[in-house]
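Entry type: protein chain
Record version: 2
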Amino acid sequence: MLAIRFSIQILRGISAVTSDVLVVIGAGAIGQAIARRTGVGKQILLADINTDSLAATADLMETSGYNVRTQPVDVASRESCASWPQWRPISAQ
């Protein structure tokens, strides 16, 4: 499980001019606890290889009012990790 918090200006697929984003890889109990604890008011990008756990955690969090996007990701696969998310930060004007 890996959690990363950072500010970005543009994130492909998410409409935001400036938003706080929390990336959580691992949708099990620990990943869910981290996302709930630190994800209030943020866009949460949730990834896991287990699609059932990913969907269940996303549904639970969305029902609780969190803004969640999901993607199946296999951290043992370089191609899987490289395919999501496609970050493209744009410098401040």
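Comment: Strands lie at 2-8, 19-25, 43-48, 67-72.
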